[in-house]
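Sequence in, structure out. Go.
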Amino acid sequence: MKIISLIKKLKIKNYQLYGEDMAKIDGLDSPKGKLILVTAINPTKFGEGKTTMSIGLADSMNKLGKNTILALREPSLGPVFGVKGGATGGGKSQIIPSEEINMHFTGDFHAITSANNLLCALIDNHIYQGNSLNIDDKNILFHRCMDMNDRALREITISQEKLSRNVERKENFIITAASEIMAILCLSQNLQDLKNRLANILVAFSKKGEPIYAKDLKAENAMALLLKNPIKPNLVQTLCHTPALVHGGPFANIAHGCNSCIATKTALSLGDYCITEAGFGGDLGGEKFIDLKCRLNNLNPNVVVIVVTLRALKTHSQEGSLSGGLDNMLKHIENFKNIFNKEVVIAINKFSDDNLKEIEKIQTFCNKIKVKAIVASPYLNKYGCTELAKEVISLCEKENSPLKYAYDLNNTIKEKILSLSQKIYGARGITYSPEAEEKIKKFEILGKGLPIVVAKTQYSLSDDDMLIGRPTNFDIHVRDIELKLGGKFIVVIAGKISLMPGLPKHPNSETMTI
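Output:
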């Protein structure tokens, strides 16, 4: 089916074609459908198939006669050329055209990168041209970005034409998926909201300690120009012609990990069901989906689907058994049921060589805690999520319970971090670096009432990827704090996580060709 046929079927009036298979559409804000979140346990480095499961579930629900639309994130070139590869599903459950989506797509990532780096250029140009705002070049908070894993850019030195100004300062790049501009695009309600958020980006402090914003550099209008098309959701489809809105791409381990609010609300406006995915495990993307995205947009998921694989479960035990993984899965179930107050179903993503007796152990474990665990094979079978779809539909027919959160927005920064860490991760307490302590004091008033986004490893409930399973008696080590006033949240950087990933020894790029 050509994309124009899908547009006519959905009765979309305002659109812009990008060839025969992709389009941008105007966002809608009249959500009427039911919302289904797909998340996972703490994954392996290869991922556990959340996107494939989301696509397969949507296809199966449509096959059962339910008007279902997908809302997914856009792929980043970092993991495409790194370890994980693309983010368009696989096997029988894919969104297409996968090669275009995985590469340049409709240019959203490039535009976000350009808007980010335009602001950086304006900051340094202002300093070069006389620095009338009295920017403290040792207290610049906004950094350059690039959509690639490149550890060489984590710490660099930049200079300003030494013969005339002799200005030199430290700088660092982050990956585009972790940039505040990405978050702003994904959290904005419309173009005016986007512009307001861009204006309020906290870029630096003056030498007198006064905050300096992007609007002080008159940057917001030019940045909004670069983002006027990227703010519109992208429409593509699955192999089974299920509509898919693929828009925004923040990582969940170093950012908030959810597709754009505009895309989710548009999907809920066009369909009776919206299936959306949050990145990595329930402790990262899943938590941020609820505590940040749902809270700020009055959204309330009807059902949470937690994806597991035998491979991932076994990585949570030193001896390679299921025990540690089942403990890890149980924690995620408890978080969504007991803390967030949501209905949960386990989706066992079955691989062709999986041991059936081990799958039965997962189901027996889940039966004891009164949660269904359903085998699904979206990669292998065109409608491999049919049984899962029936259970999701059944749970959606129940009265939707009120959503609860892991922390109170009115609490202090430290109270929010402690509450989240103890409830969601199972941590004992928190330790802070001197730098984090100093920034918390500085940001407490400016960041009052804002939610937090924790950047930490995706491989553990803790901030140490070596603590597998369901660790106990551990502390979360807060290394740094960043205030995102444009995005309207606070970033808490924990453990050894980096906002600019590196490539592995043998990246995927080595085996890619036309």
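Check: The mean pLDDT is 95. The chain is about 35% helix and 20% strand.
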